[in-house]
UniProtKB/TrEMBL annotation:
Single GO biological process annotation from the record: carbohydrate metabolic process
Compositionally biased region (Polar residues): 17-34
Full protein name: Glucose-6-phosphate 1-epimerase
Pfam families: Aldose_epim (PF01263)
Catalytic activity, reaction form: alpha-D-glucose 6-phosphate = beta-D-glucose 6-phosphate
Binding sites annotated in the UniProt record for substrate: R77, Q101, R106
Cellular component, GO, one term: cytoplasm
Length: 319
């Protein structure tokens, strides 16, 4: 397991509840739920350490397909799946070429490491850590990617934000142990009407358009609107991306603030894409979601033996 990050005090997570300053963590065999005194909550499956629910201001803030498997039989369709060590379909000739799309992190059971609490600016932060390392992988998966890695994934809930952060350690030794990776938080945000939202902060960036054969383009608009299937990798994006209701004087809906991550992916399958995704239900659910995905995916991140990398994203819900 990643050694150098101070593990939070081990919690007797077998206890049904551990009330402390009114924040609670409850665990069942397959998931953990954080409950905040404000009423906010987050539920994380141990499978893939996938956030499947985040509530704030009395409402669900993430989109989750009603046909999503939640039993560990396949990656969750919705919530916040984790992408590591490769984003997208692996390219032939790369170390990740034998891995499935988006890598193995989202389809492997993670270990619950424990929980910590803090108070900042008068708001309680309740944080839960999950761990995954090379030894957690089944032999078949390990054989497909040689990196000796350790991951610690932290989910932190406050009254209006959900932070997701990843620490990646190269647990190998010697010059040959360096490995390349992508990492991304594949967040499915729930919105009232995707065709009424605007996404701000992307203007003048270069992006790869996966609906146009991965061709490179320049973003000319100050507010991106979703009017058809959209699948874009924006490189070197600013750290703060705003999602607003363009039909209501740009009323803020979400602010996504990345730290230590370079790129932002915007995805909505629209009607034609949703039809082709077997576990996408309801089929018109594309109208109520937009993926705003912070990550480092446009280029490989190289991690030398013994080195550690860290990056994360704060999702803030305004409504
Ligand atoms: O992040 C956008 C994307 O790469 C899209 O191209 C689409 O494939 C989406 O991820 C979902 O991928 P999945 O493997 O979960 O079906």
């Amino acid at each position: 397991m990643v050694g150098d990050k101070k593990k939070p005090p081990t919690l007797d997570v077998t206890a049904a509840e551990t009330p402390s300053s009114h924040a609670t963590l409850t665990q069942s065999s397959d998931r953990v739920t954080l409950s905040h005194p404000s009423g906010a909550s987050a539920t994380i499956l141990l499978y893939g350490a996938t956030v499947i629910s985040w509530t704030a201001h009395g409402r669900e803030q993430l989109w989750l397909s009603t046909a999503s498997a939640l039993d560990g039989s396949r990656a969750v369709r919705g919530g916040i799946p984790l992408v590591f060590p490769v984003f997208g379909p692996p390219q032939a000739g790369t170390a990740a070429e034998k891995l499935p799309q988006h890598g193995f992190a989202r389809t492997t059971r993670w270990e619950l490491l424990g929980r910590t609490e803090a108070e900042t600016a008068g708001d309680l932060n309740i944080c839960v850590d999950f761990g995954l390392d090379s030894r957690s992988l089944d032999e078949e998966t390990r054989a497909k990617w040689g990196g000796e890695f350790g991951l610690i994934y932290s989910v932190t809930l406050t009254s209006s934000t959900l932070e997701t952060k990843m620490v990646v350690q190269n647990a190998g030794s010697g010059e040959s142990a360096a490995f390349d990776f992508n990492v991304l938080f594949h967040t499915y945000l729930r919105v009232p009407d995707v065709e009424a939202i605007g996404i701000k902060g992307l203007n003048s960036l270069t992006y790869r358009d996966k609906t146009l054969g991965n061709t490179e383009h320049n973003e000319s608009s100050t507010t991106l609107r979703i009017t058809s299937q959209t699948d874009r990798v924006y490189r070197s994006a600013p750290d703060e991306i705003a999602i607003v209701d363009a039909s209501a004087s740009d009323k803020p809906l979400f602010t996504v603030t990345k730290v230590g991550l370079k790129d932002v992916v915007i995805w909505n399958p629209h009607a034609e894409g949703a039809e082709k995704i077997a576990d996408w239900q309801p089929k018109d659910g594309w109208k109520e979601m937009v993926c705003v995905e912070a990550g480092s995916v446009a280029e490989w991140q190289t991690l030398e033996a013994g080195a550690t990398w860290e990056g994360g994203v704060v999702h803030k819900a305004h409504l």
